[in-house]
From TrEMBL:
The keyword Metal-binding applies. Transmembrane segments: none annotated. Belongs to the arginase family. The keyword Lyase does not apply. This is Arginase family protein. It comes from Nonomuraea corallina. PANTHER family: ARGINASE/AGMATINASE, GUANIDINO ACID HYDROLASE, MITOCHONDRIAL. Keywords: Hydrolase, Metal-binding.
Length: 400
């Protein structure tokens, strides 16, 4: 039975839950809830298939039950039966500032990797990125932290972040299509809670289910895509996208999405021609030019924007731990400035950041740069709230 919360948002009981004694248990996500009288009543009503009246929840109850995924959006139900996410080894949170106006970010780890050359893999970088983010978030959350970029204390204006865990992936049994279906459903549950999905991967194949879920919520979506590669190989007869053709899959499924790819270089021998005219490009050389900022501002121009970043957009000198390195890439300062421009010009509604691999040396520089971009977005949005302040300039010859 489909029911709704007080706002009318539809939900169904998560089929992964079962009653075991006095508990509701979701073994796929390692979740156990005491079956209190209100939960038992909700469960019994939700289980009825005889046209019982819709169950309507208070806003507080709706948020709590969606957070533990006891209720899920109807279109997430089939995938939820196998479990959507598990608590991460390094759970993260970042409180929203007292004056923050933007919706919080909903973090998802996506250890999805559909294969490639041997060596360190992007799916194994999720815990490394989480560790890098933990240190940055500890600093950002402190009330006394000062940002020289903002010339302000960011804590008052941070949009904040809630951790939804890591996608449940069963490497021995899951196909790529199954993992993508589950990730699309998980993103849907995050959107249903009013959070903006922030997905850390994983390879860039995740862009297909993530952006598709977001585009379903935002028909006028614009995608800003930082990457060394166009990722527009033809879809062919495959059952789901891979990291080299996810753009083609998204554009085929969502014909109204506008797309800007930034940082491409080298040659492409198998470019999908079907989407010509729907994708704009800034090569790596063009992205370094002063005109790039204006191009990004015009493209975003107050629209809902999804930011997707393949960290191999950076030159291998800065990001060596990637699967497909390409020389002539951007430097971190240029990438940071361009991402700030996206946050300033558009209305960020979702993001995914992918393709960092763990470093055999243990230094994890590439994952650190990816974490830096998450911090960049947090600071950019905080700056829109708190403005710029002191300390004042105190150069020689000027009054303090």
């Amino acid at each position: 039975m489909t029911s709704a919360d007080r706002s009318g948002a539809p939900w169904v009981l998560n089929p992964a839950f079962r009653i075991q004694g006095g508990d509701l248990v979701n073994e796929a996500e390692d979740t156990r809830l005491t079956l209190t009288p209100p939960l038992r009543e909700l469960w019994e009503l939700g289980e009825r298939r005889d046209g019982a009246p819709a169950v309507r929840l208070t806003e507080e109850a709706d948020k709590a039950l969606r957070r533990i995924r006891l209720i899920v959006p109807p279109d997430a139900s089939a995938a939820a039966a196998g479990g959507l996410a598990r608590t991460a080894g390094t759970p993260l949170s970042l409180p929203a500032g007292t004056r923050a106006a933007a919706a919080v970010w909903g973090l998802i780890g996506a250890p999805v990797d559909l294969g490639g050359p041997p060596g360190p893999r992007p799916k194994d970088a999720v815990p490394v990125i989480r560790q890098a983010l933990a240190g940055r978030f500890r600093l950002l959350a402190q009330p006394g932290t000062w940002s020289w970029t903002l010339r302000a204390r960011p804590a008052e204006g941070l949009p904040g972040l809630v951790d939804h865990g890591d996608l449940a992936v069963h490497p021995q049994t899951d196909t790529g299509a199954a993992a993508h279906e589950r990730l699309r459903a998980l993103v849907g549950t995050v959107l249903a809670q009013g959070h903006r999905p922030l997905v850390i991967g994983g390879d860039h194949s995740i862009g297909y289910p993530v952006i598709s879920a977001v585009a379903g919520r935002h028909p006028a979506l614009r995608v800003v895509h930082f990457d060394a590669h166009a990722d527009r190989r033809p879809a062919g007869n495959a059952v789901t996208a891979d990291c080299g053709n996810f753009v083609s899959w998204v554009l085929s499924e969502h014909p109204h999405v506008a797309w800007l790819t930034i940082g491409v270089r080298g040659v492409d021998t198998n470019l999908d021609q079907a989407t010509n005219g729907r994708v704009s490009y800034l090569t790596a050389d063009e992205a370094r030019a002063p005109e790039a900022a204006g191009t990004i501002a015009r493209f975003c121009a107050g629209a809902p924007v999804h930011l997707t970043v393949d960290i191999d957009v950076l030159d291998p000198a800065y990001a060596p731990d990637v699967v497909y390195p390409a020389g002539g890439g951007l430097d971190p300062a240029t990438l940071t400035a361009l991402v700030r421009g996206v946050a300033a010009a558009g209305r960020l509604v979702a993001s995914d950041l992918v393709e960092a691999c763990p470093s055999p040396s243990g230094r994890h520089l590439t994952a650190a740069h990816l974490a830096d971009l998450v911090e960049t977005v947090q600071l950019a949005e905080a700056g829109q709230v708190v403005g710029r302040g002191s300390p004042v300039n105190n150069f020689a010859g000027e009054d303090a």
